[in-house]
Amino acid sequence: MILGKVCGSINSTINHDYYDNKRLLLVDRINPDGTETGKYLIAMDSIGAGFGETVIIVDEGNSARMIVEDKTAPLRAIIVGIVDHIDVERK
Questions:
Q1: Mean pLDDT of all residues in 73-82
Q2: Closest-CA residue to 7 (of 30, 29, 23, 27)
Q3: Less packed terminus of the chain by CB within 10 Å, N or C?
Q4: How far apart are CA 11 and CA 54, in angstroms?
Q5: What number of other Cβ atoms are within 10 A of residue 23's Cβ?
Q6: Do strands 77-82 and 36-45 pair parallel, antiparallel, or not at all (unpaired)?
Q7: Are the C-beta atoms of 52 and 4 separated by less than 8 Å?
Q8: Segment 25-57, tens digit of pLDDT
Q9: The whole model's pTM is what?
């Protein structure tokens, strides 16, 4: 799983039929301390995440397809949670 911050959305006029009426979000991966990495990915939103929210992403196709219960979905990354708070223990 990956931590990320929603920083935008993706709109397309031509896409695979599977993506009709689905939200695709641009997410910047973040470190546990909340700093952004600049490593972006596109993930399908399954929970209603919004701009600026910290989210949990599954970035593995088979797991993502299991979540949407469609073995043939052309899907790799999916947002599965919104993070309320991150606690990092410092040594």
A1: 95
A2: 27
A3: C
A4: 21
A5: 16
A6: parallel
A7: no
A8: 999 999 988 899 999 999 999 999 999 999 999
A9: 0.89
Supply 50's token pair. Answer: 């919004």
Report DSSP letters for 51-87, one per residue: TT-EEEEEE-HHHHHHHHT-TT----EEEEEE-S---
Task: Report CA dihedral (52, 38, 86, 33) to the nearest 10 degrees.
Answer: -130
What is d(CA 71, CA 73) in angstroms, rounded to the nearest whole number?
6
Amino acid identity of residue 61, one-letter, is: G
Is residue 59 within 8 Å of residue 76, measured between CB atoms? yes
Q: Which of left, alpha, beta for 77 (phi over 0: left; psi -120 to 50: alpha)?
A: beta
Instruction: Please report, for the chain, the start and end positions of each structural domain, with discontinuous segments joined by +.
Output: 2-82
DSSP code, position 36: E
What does the block give as tokens for 69? Answer: 């219960």
- Rounded (5°) CA angle 54-57-62: 170
Superfamily of domain 2-82: EutN/Ccml (2.40.50.220)
